[in-house]
Design brief:
With 185 residues, the protein is an alpha+beta fold. The chain folds into two domains: 112 residues, Homing Intron 3 (I-Ppo) Encoded Endonuclease, Chain A, CATH 3.90.75; 51 residues, no CATH class. It has seven helices and six strands; from the N terminus they run ααββββαββαααα. It has a two-stranded antiparallel ribbon. A two-stranded antiparallel ribbon has the order 3-4. The protein has a two-stranded antiparallel ribbon with strand order 5-6. A hairpin with a 3-residue loop joins β3 and β4. The protein is elongated, with a radius of gyration of 24 Å. It starts with a helix and ends in an 18-residue tail after the last helix.
């Protein structure tokens, strides 16, 4: 959903169906406090990643679905968030506004990796994106000029493009020094 559509929804309060109060009432009805974590958990419909979702309408015909945590955050700050809305509690179903903050997509992805929700694509040679061990890379480099890239690729079960990239000097970050960046604001 675009920010323009959402902002349009916020500014056409007289055309809301259901009204803003009934949307807030629907939200409140489907939120349950988890005393152990302090989270306000959405008990309604969720998407495949576990984030709560709710349908909103503009006028009589236009309808769209928004994520509950983004919508509650927008209501609390008075505008639709431009950036991603990040969970401090690590619970996708949580809609507690004190657990939410606005942040960039890069911060959100770094946060996912740091909290173990998403494996790092660059977590060592055996990370998600890497099929080759350091010994495989050494073998690949030693065959440069001796075998065609397609034969080396077949032997190592990678694509010829991967072989060409290594031959031209590309290395995954796990095989070169890297800077560790923090995702805290």
């Amino acid at each position: 959903m675009s920010n323009a559509t959402t902002m349009h929804w916020f500014h056409r309060q007289s055309d809301w169906r259901p009204s803003r109060e009934s949307v807030v009432a629907r939200l409140t009805r489907r939120l349950k406090r988890d005393d152990s974590s302090g989270c306000l958990l959405w008990t309604g419909g969720r998407d495949r990643w576990g984030y709560g979702k709710i349908d909103l309408r503009i006028g009589a015909s236009e309808r769209f679905t928004v994520q509950v945590h983004r919508f509650r955050y927008a209501l609390s700050i008075g505008r639709w968030p431009v950036l991603s809305v990040l969970h401090g509690c690590d619970t996708p179903a949580c809609a507690e506004t004190t657990h939410l903050r606005e942040g960039s997509h890069e911060e959100n992805m770094a946060d996912c990796v740091l909290r173990g929700r998403k494996p790092s694509a660059f977590a060592g040679v055996r990370g998600v994106l890497f099929k080759l061990s350091e010994a495989d890379v050494d073998r690949l480099l030693s065959l440069r000029g001796r075998l065609p890239a397609r034969d080396v690729a077949a032997e190592l079960a990678v694509s010829p493009v991967t072989v060409w990239r290594y031959w031209r000097g590309w290395r995954p970050s796990a095989l070169r020094p890297q800077e560790v960046r923090s995702c805290t604001p």
